Amino acid sequence: MNIQEKIEDWWSDAEEYDSYIKQEFQDDRFRAWKELFTEHLGGKTNLRILDIGTGPGFFASVLADMGNEVIGIDCSDAMLERARRNAAQLNVNPRFYKMDAHHTFFEEMSFDWIVSRNVTWTLHRPEEAYMHWKKLLKLGGRLLIFDANWHRQFYDRETARRVREREEKYFEIYGKEFKVCTEDKAFYDMLPLSNTMRPRWDIDILQKIGFSHVSVKEDIGSRVYEEWEKELYSESPLFEIEAVNGQSSEPPDGEMWS
């Protein structure tokens, strides 16, 4: 089994993640993400948007609900099955396809926006993927990435200690166990970004391959998370990266990196 097959097998059980996504559709997080995307899109609709690593289809469904033409891709059949169900329940119609994020089948310069959440850390050739995504964007098109340093506790003892404390506090408050990430370190060791400090790495790569106006918001989770997530995930805050393909007169709204 090659590394891509191992990654696909890792995500073959979609039930737990789908349960999390279903809750997002039903609580304030749906509104919070919609407000965030509204700010980024600047009131524009009918954009052609690619959601890479769509999972159970949350981003794809939210953006379709906002009046855009959305395509979601994922390497997992199980995730895509749930994405189609979730979209149907919301009465929206994004299209979903099984594809490898490193090499899609779309024509170059096909999309106004590309979005992803918690995807880049899963890639075994992330720089190659970013180069491919850039080719898919129209000139002036935007890349919007949400991710975190999810596995630092496996490579830093002090981070691990603080993560365990937060897990214990979560158990005390809610009466159930929750692991920030599972103990499958051998799997994380296969992936090049597991022990890489981000978003610095992403910024360097995106600028090197020709993206402009690269901006970062270091803790976007404070806007879109519920209180329990803010507490539990504070050692690995969700960051946002926005980058423009080519030059643009409208730079992203965030801390500019150079």
TrEMBL record:
<dbReference type="InterPro" id="IPR025714">
    <property type="entry name" value="Methyltranfer_dom"/>
</dbReference>
<dbReference type="GO" id="GO:0008168">
    <property type="term" value="F:methyltransferase activity"/>
</dbReference>
<dbReference type="InterPro" id="IPR029063">
    <property type="entry name" value="SAM-dependent_MTases_sf"/>
</dbReference>
<keyword id="KW-0489">Methyltransferase</keyword>
<dbReference type="GO" id="GO:0032259">
    <property type="term" value="P:methylation"/>
</dbReference>
<feature type="domain" description="Methyltransferase">
    <location>
        <begin position="45"/>
        <end position="170"/>
    </location>
</feature>
<protein>
    <submittedName>
        <fullName>Class I SAM-dependent methyltransferase</fullName>
    </submittedName>
</protein>
<keyword id="KW-0808">Transferase</keyword>
<dbReference type="Pfam" id="PF13847">
    <property type="entry name" value="Methyltransf_31"/>
</dbReference>
